[in-house]
Prior knowledge:
By secondary structure, this protein is mainly α. The protein contains 5 helices and no strands.
Amino acid sequence: MSGLAIALLGAAVAVVLASIGSVIGVSLVGRGGAGVLAEKPELFGKVLLLEVLPGTQGIYGFLVAFIVLLQTGIIGGEAVEVTMAQGWEVFFICLAIALTGLFSGWFQGKVGVSGLNILAKRPEKFGNAVILSAMVETYALLGLVVSILSVLFLKLG
């Protein structure tokens, strides 16, 4: 396996694991939201916002993968020479968003389900539910920033 292949594997892992976290989180809130909407259909917009929040982790993984594809020259130019060591560096850099995206998306979904309970009983406290869910997002953002900065400052080729 070449260094470029290992770097591309890292990009794929970033997308796949972060997206799995989003799928889990969005599905958790979506299932809980269906129950809230059965009783209070007028809350659809607020339920949808809580459901969308865990979906960002997959986007973060995609963004990191896209930057890896740019840095390796797969998109926008000729592929650069990537040594085995550099390929492994990119792979491990991608794990930052892959793992934070996986777990934060999953657990943000759990917090979002709890937020649905707030919404169902006290709709005026919806902002509190959003803040609680957004706090979990912070760690996906840290993984995103670490991955982006690390890939951008890595000298390939």
